[in-house]
Amino acid sequence: MTNIPETGRTPRVQVRLVIIQILVVSLLLTLGGRLWYLQVRNGSEYAEEASGNHVQQVVQPAVRGSILDARGVPIADNQTRLVVSASRTDLMKMKDDGKSVLDKLAGVLAMSPKDVADKVRLCDSKTPQPCWNGSPYQPIPITDEATPKQALQIRERSEDFPGITAEPTAVRRYGAPGKSNTAQVLGYLSPVTDEEINKAKDSDSPYLRSDQVGRSGLERTYDKQLRGKAGVTRYEVDNLGRVIGKAESDRAQPGSNVVTSIDARVQAVSEYWLNDAMKKARDEFDKNTGENYKADAGAVVVMENKTGRIVSMASNPTYDPNAWVGGISGKDYARLTGKKSNYPLLNRAIQGQAAPGSIFKVIPTAAAVNAGYEFNGRYPCPSSYSIGGQVFKNFESQGHGSITLGQALEVSCDTVFYKLSHDQWAKDGGNKPKKNAHDWFYKTAHQFGLGKETGIDLPNEVTGRVPDRKWKKDYWAANKDAWCKQGKKGGEYAERIAYENCLEGMKMRAGDSVNYSIGQGDTLVTPIQMATIYSAIANGGTMYDPTVGKAIISADGKRVEEIAPKSHGKLPMDAALRKDIDGALADVATKGTAAWRFGGWPQDKIPMHAKTGTAEVYGKQTTSWFATYTKDYSIVMTISQGGTGSGASGPAVRKIYDAIYGLDDSGKQDLKKALLPEPQKSLPKIQPDGSIDAPRIKPFKPAKPKAPTEQTELAGPPANVRRD
Amino acid sequence: MAGTGGFSVSGYGPERSTMSRLFARDSILRRLDWVILLCALALSVIGSALVYSATRNRTELVGDDPYAFVIKHVINVGIGLGLMAGTIWLGHRTLRTAVPILYGISVFLVLLVLTPLGATINGAHAWLVIAGFSLQPSEFVKITIILGMAMLLAARVDAGDREHPDHRTVVQALGLAAVPIMIVLLMPDLGSVMVMVMIILGVLLASGASNRWVFGLLGAGALGGVAIWQLGVLDDYQIARFAAFANPALDPAGVGYNTNQARIAIGSGGLTGTGLTKGSQTTGQFVPEQQTDFVFTVAGEELGFVGAGAILLLLGVVLWRACRIARETTELYGTIVAAGIIAWFAFQAFENIGMTLGIMPVAGLPLPFVSYGGSSMFAVWVAVGLLQSIKVERPLSA
């Protein structure tokens, strides 16, 4: 059939019909091309967008790993509590948005309906706390302190409580095994902030809204390992957020356990005796200030010499870390951080710094030998040393004649070190220092690791301070304005000091170097630094990074990752000098300043080495320091405003050794009673089901003190021996 | 030229009984364009499946009965088929005599929309709700414009007086179309107005009217568009739709939401789709109006490129066959009617699918044969009836 003849239509119409046909076909081809472009070429992109559209994630938090002591005793673990939660998704499906259900629930939980309603409302810029800050698809906890009866009421009448669950849930618990508290070492958890979520978003361990994050102590250092990986269930939802199906899910991976080198029993003993020593110090009269010692803070560290591992670490004042669990109350927070609190959150073993006093003297001893002095040479120990009219006294103004450096350590003679340091200062140019001054005494302090962190695996360690020339200059530059404003020539003491500082505070003066040589003045150290130094003297000279964490063991016990000891250098002394100092420190314990505290000590079996220290602090009472070591352990204790080293800290340190080695007061050893005669080597076993093989431990109870009848020699040192 | 009676195929052979006419060698059934019929039917069947998928869980629409919409859709298709049969039975020539009456009724109905009887559904004040049934008179206006203009334009040409319609006739025809278009513009049902303008273009092209008219109409369309914009005839939502079309990133939660979700739905279907009722966008009801204007997104997501392409292909076949009918009929009247229907179907399908694909601005237009909606369904099947009638009533070549 042809187009034209019998239709009688003109070619114009025919042409236009063809045009229409072409137009139609091209429109359809356009659509087809676009369809191909969207679906075939870019299809996967849109598929991804579609899944983002309709998939919502509900998170099952991973159970946080436990923190174990060296033998597997959990010092931080999880407790099952009955948590009542509400599903917003379910509540919102109800006609009254779940109000009647929540009101009924408030009745069962004995809470006010408003409190319950507030807990499930979503936070936004206009909604004040309490409100739910997490995902609206996440069950919202209403209480974690439901009683079994309340939980049963809710579960048995589940038709009355649609969208409400009452389930046992893991909550952090600091169990204080054997009465060990370990608060500052453990740290604490608190909910993750928006900022942290944003920051960690693209990292390999992103946070979930429901996460608790370690804020301090081990909880913070090992947060990543402890946290595990949360499980995620993906729900398909419709445009109104209603769940219409379940997509694939990832199961939660519980966090790993952190095995520490802490021994909960030794920890309990340390805490007890530290607190006891501070209590006793408060009963002591301080004749310098005319009132009892305040003993406002203290710390003790027990360290393994050959590894740097921490066996116990106590800080006082302390607190109950369980205060943080389930959100800290405003009252508790003020009690822990307020001005009056005396800051129990601080771990004074790593964050408390003070002048070291005489326990510092091993450093000038090494400095002197390195500067060329004979260890066994003879050095005068007069009762005082004067520089240009200024008199620097020996402790309690005693003289000891001409003695070796070892004896100077033993009797803690200050004047020996005054002279050595003063001579070196003069050699370095005195008030007009040479360009390349040796600065032996300062250099050696740095070599001992002072003035910087030891690298312990706990957060926020402080550095202490070596008041060398550079520090003096920086300090002066920072303070000169204040000094020059306050200073007055011939004014009061403080004003005169300020005036002097204003004029020449940038200079290392003779008096500075003299004060510095015996650990007084501007020098600051932390207990952990001193423990590191003394354990290094004990182990032959290796300064280990102190560690609390010993191993990371996966929840099923299959993966064990040991944290190997790491050193940050050697002490600047050769073997002979180390041996000399070692001997002198043993003498301190047997016949020197600490001897009166070690009466009856089995020195032949367990050689004891010690150094006492009493640091003077302007405007405060003296700081008590006591640094000791045996073959395996070092113990360093300090008590701020606590009195003398051996006087305040001595008995407590001995008590800790007694517990470790199983010694009684007379020095007889009973290995059965010994808590840890040798450092714990093996790691605790964790079963595939997550249970931990740990010994049971009893709460620490100190033995009743016997009346000190036959131990009269313990009542005080011989009259000619210094008691610092 | 009017037929002698409702039942006769005037002028060709003696009158026979209905049954014998149906099955005779030159019977209506044998001369029907079965390809168009089957393709259109296939589109409606696919449409049923898509409407089912889109509405089965829209409880706010269907209540507890997931089949509520699809049943109504199938009934609509059935009524549509009945209207087609009736149209064939009457024949387009018979209808030609009734055009003034039909035109009058349709204009009356669109006028009624502007009275309190009119109702606003989904932002378009284009509905009449009478005794519980909602009716969209603008759908029928599309038919009466085609028939009315064809009647005027073809009258003197088919009578052999002229080769092409003269200017006066063209003016008359345009006037005839302008009256209902102005009313629909006042609603404002912009989508329908655009379709009607395209219908006029198709009708004028096929009528052989002077090129000046064709280009004049194109120019007037452009000017009209600017005028509509400037005069503020449009509602805010319509302006927002155009803005969202120009910049899809604009306000993805607001006016851009439809197009964005529609594109996600279609794009995520990929080559073969998720399978009927398996699409997450459809199941999750992320695309609004998915059973009506956005029904193509269900096909895109759940049937994929294969299924959505099949819909395009079926529409293509229907239009291709319609073009053939337009070319092969003996009278200019039939040619014009067929061309008007082609312009209508082609533009409406292009606009509807194009907006879901993001290449056309959103306008409330159903996809012929596929979308849920009675008025539209009836109108397109009447149009198929007209095409069939034009084909059937062309003389046999013998």
TrEMBL record, chain A:
Residues annotated as domain Penicillin-binding protein dimerisation: 60-246
A GO cellular component annotation in the UniProt record: plasma membrane
InterPro entries from the UniProt entry: Beta-lactam/transpept (IPR050515), Beta-lactam/transpept-like (IPR012338), PBP_dimer (IPR005311), PBP_dimer_sf (IPR036138), PCN-bd_Tpept (IPR001460), Penicillin-binding_protein_2 (IPR017790)
Protein name: Penicillin-binding protein 2
Major site of localization recorded for this protein: membrane
Keywords: Carboxypeptidase, Cell inner membrane, Cell membrane, Cell shape, Cell wall biogenesis/degradation, Hydrolase, Membrane, Peptidoglycan synthesis, Protease, Transmembrane, Transmembrane helix
Gene for this chain: mrdA
Keyword Protease on entry: yes
The protein's enzyme class: hydrolase
Region entry Disordered, spans: 676-724
Entry-linked NCBIfam families: pbp2_mrdA
Classification lineage: Bacteria, Bacillati, Actinomycetota, Actinomycetes, Kitasatosporales
From TrEMBL, chain B:
Biological processes annotated in GO: cell division; regulation of cell shape
Gene Ontology CC annotations of this record: cell division site; plasma membrane
Localization (cell): Membrane
EC number(s) given by UniProt: 2.4.99.28
Transmembrane among keywords: yes
Membrane topology, as annotated: Multi-pass membrane protein
GO function terms (MF aspect): lipid-linked peptidoglycan transporter activity; peptidoglycan glycosyltransferase activity
Transmembrane segments: 34-55, 67-90, 102-128, 140-157, 169-187, 193-209, 214-232, 303-320, 332-350, 370-387
Keywords, ordered alphabetically: Cell shape, Membrane, Transmembrane, Transmembrane helix
Main location: membrane
Pfam short name (any one): FTSW_RODA_SPOVE
Catalytic activity field: [GlcNAc-(1->4)-Mur2Ac(oyl-L-Ala-gamma-D-Glu-L-Lys-D-Ala-D-Ala)](n)-di-trans,octa-cis-undecaprenyl diphosphate + beta-D-GlcNAc-(1->4)-Mur2Ac(oyl-L-Ala-gamma-D-Glu-L-Lys-D-Ala-D-Ala)-di-trans,octa-cis-undecaprenyl diphosphate = [GlcNAc-(1->4)-Mur2Ac(oyl-L-Ala-gamma-D-Glu-L-Lys-D-Ala-D-Ala)](n+1)-di-trans,octa-cis-undecaprenyl diphosphate + di-trans,octa-cis-undecaprenyl diphosphate + H(+)
Keyword Transmembrane: yes
Protein name, entry field: peptidoglycan glycosyltransferase
Species, as recorded: Streptomyces typhae
Upper lineage: Bacteria, Bacillati, Actinomycetota, Actinomycetes, Kitasatosporales
